[in-house]
Design a protein that fits this description.
single chain, mainly beta, five-stranded antiparallel β-sheet, four-stranded mixed β-sheet, 2 helices, 30 strands, about 5% helix, about 35% strand, elongated, disordered N terminus
Length: about 425
């Protein structure tokens, strides 16, 4: 056997003066400090990928060659100067510590004495540390904020998950890298304009349009209307003291004529040209509450329908809706509210146990999309999968969208329900769907 000494180089080079001995059958050879340091210097001068050690603000900086230092503390690294002669600063945001787990790795690279900070995602077998790729999901126990890829979709488990929690089925796993940037939301209503939130108990409106406190009365205040239109009000008991409707301008100031009587019921009213809101008495002392109050456009009272809102997302930035949110349709059996891209359009299933093609309008509804094209989006996997890019101009979402963040999503979400993720921006949230 030769006298060669076996040296295994790890990511972090051992400390100075670390003598090394081989494990051969012959008598071991021991490096002197001088030999070890000479070898170490040669390795450091010829290695560009290894980590020399852990950086400290007081380190002496080598002014020739290239090396890398691990910076795992949020401090100012005084002696590490960048190209502008400014000390490198590592922040908590750089390290991204979540629930006590450091999610990012910060490296200071030094070349000929000039330092540069590099921040890398640190994602491994438990989704929090270890290797540099997001692992494929396997039946196992996962720690909080673990990330996995399953069927080319990326998930995170905010509170951890067990081996029986399957991504796409269990609510322990939440899809990430999903959504579009919302730049404008408009709220529309159904045919009934009488929002229960605008009803106020204990007030009344007189013939001059003035509002005042009066026990056992009830009004509805500032219902939006269209100028120069007609509305019909129904569902009110008009017996007893006369009830009035008052007209208001864009600033909700009373205009002339101040009011009209609600008798008889149903009552059709012509809205003045400068009127944008109305208020009305809808119950007096002798009446029961107007449980089926309806205010609708037009001159005909139709069947009662409860008030409902729809938020229309009118503007959506041309973002890439990647496959973790809108997968391509493949033949199979799908649940109600599942969404897919088919022939460059976005479809939502209307029924459970859906085996039909998205072109079947009795089973699917087209909710947006247009011309699409492919682009590379590796999703941090080794498969280099390509996903679809879809530009959508408008979505109609029933009801009022709940708001939250990835860390604290809205409570009470049901499968298929949309919500606004304000993690990155309150003004331009991300549209997500509960799986």
């Amino acid at each position: 056997m030769s006298d060669q000494v076996i040296i295994n180089i790890s990511d972090t080079i051992p400390p100075e003066n670390y003598a090394t001995i081989d494990k051969g059958v012959m008598t071991g050879s021991v490096y002197t400090k001088e030999q070890d340091n000479a070898w170490r210097k040669e390795v450091e001068e010829n290695t560009s990928s290894g980590i020399r050690g852990v950086a400290k603000p007081s380190d002496t900086i080598t002014t020739t060659g290239f090396y890398r230092m691990l910076a795992n503390t949020a401090v100012t690294y005084t002696n590490y100067l960048d190209v502008n002669n400014t000390s490198i600063v590592v922040t908590d945001a750089d390290l991204s510590i979540v629930n006590g787990v450091q999610r990012n790795e910060v490296i200071i690279e030094v070349y000929n004495g000039i330092s540069e900070k590099k921040v890398y995602a640190k994602v491994g077998a438990d989704g929090a540390n270890g290797t540099s790729t997001i692992p494929q999901w396997l039946p196992d126990n996962y720690s909080p904020n673990a990330m996995v890829v399953d069927n080319f979709i990326q998930y995170i488990a905010p509170n951890g998950a067990s081996e029986t929690d399957i991504p796409g089925i269990s609510d322990k796993w939440v899809k990430i890298k999903a959504g579009v940037s919302v730049t404008s939301i408009e709220k529309t209503t159904g045919k009934n304009l009488a929002n229960p939130a605008l009803r106020i108990v204990g007030r009344w409106i007189n013939s001059s349009g003035a509002e005042a406190v009066l026990a056992n009365w009830e009004i509805i205040r500032d219902v939006p209307v269209t100028p120069s239109s007609q509305i019909t009000i129904s569902g009110i008991d008009v017996t007893g003291v006369t009830k009035y409707v008052v007209f208001k301008d864009i600033n909700k100031a009373i205009i002339s004529p101040p009011s009209v009587s609600l008798n008889p019921s149903p009552k059709t009213i012509v809205i003045p040209a400068n009127c944008y809101f109305i208020s009305a008495s809808i119950k007096n002392t002798s009446n029961v509450s107007a449980t089926q109050l309806q205010i609708e456009e037009g001159n005909i009272a139709t069947a009662y329908e409860p008030y409902k809102e729809t938020e229309i997302i009118k503007k959506i930035d041309d973002k890439d809706l990647i496959a973790s949110y809108l997968p391509d349709y493949v033949a199979g059996t799908y649940k109600k509210n599942q969404i897919f891209v088919y022939q460059a359009k976005i479809y939502k299933s209307l029924v459970n146990d859906n085996t039909s093609l998205p072109t079947d309008v009795t089973k699917w509804v087209n909710i947006g999309g247009g011309a699409g094209n492919s682009f590379n989006q590796a999703l941090n996997t080794t498969d280099n999968v390509q996903f679809a890019k879809v530009t959508a101009n408008e979505y109609a979402i029933p009801g009022t969208l709940k708001k939250g963040t990835l860390a604290t999503p809205p409570t009470g979400l049901v499968s298929g329900e949309y919500w606004l993720d304000q993690t990155d921006s309150t003004a331009n949230p991300i549209l997500r769907q509960k799986q």
